[in-house]
Amino acid sequence: MKKLLICLGLVLAVGLLFAACTNTEQPSDDQGNTGLSGEPADILNSLIENCDVEMVATMDVEVSADNAQHYLGLTSEQFTQYVQSAAVKEAAINAQAHLVAVLQCTDEAAAAEVKAMIAENFDPMRWICVTPEQCFVVDAGSYVLLAATYEDVAAALQTAFANAAGSSMGTVEVFYPN
Hints:
Low-confidence stretches: 4-33
Oligomer: single chain
Strand content: 15-25%
Number of helices: 6
Order of helices and strands: HHEHHEEHEEHE
Number of strands: 6
Structural class: alpha+beta
């Protein structure tokens, strides 16, 4: 009887092991994203928590169609048309050139458009007296990550975003310095 129970337990354990190993797909949401889902603020906070460098002290910034040009390089019409929601963190001290944003766009095509528009129109000189060491933008599904910051922070954010986005991550476009 003991041998039978042990054999059944082993068979069950092996079956569970095979079942767990066969599902290698990344989680996806209803918009076809793999790896990323949820509110941009939650994603942004998670990315920052998963960076292995000391982050600049930041404050949350409310972005709307009225100020999207200043923070993202998007016109109010572009912001309204393509962006569902956005989360932006900026350096708490304006003597530091640091801004990180996650945008949730209407769909993957909109995210690709937003990525291109940000790379073309974001102003790295917006801080006037200081400039970031690197500005980049990358998309994954319907999400876009923008960072204008120090090189080590930019690299850590890219790694954290790659880990979160998985295979849906697009190409990182570094547009400053170019």
